[in-house]
Amino acid sequence: MTILHIAYAADWNAAQESGEYRISTRGRTLEQEGFIHCSADRRQADTVTQAFYADVTDPLVLLEIDPTGLDIRYETPEGAHEAFPHLYGPLPTTSVTAVYEHNTR
Question: What structural domains and CATH numbers belong to the chain?
Answer without folding.
Answer: 3-102 (3.20.170.20)
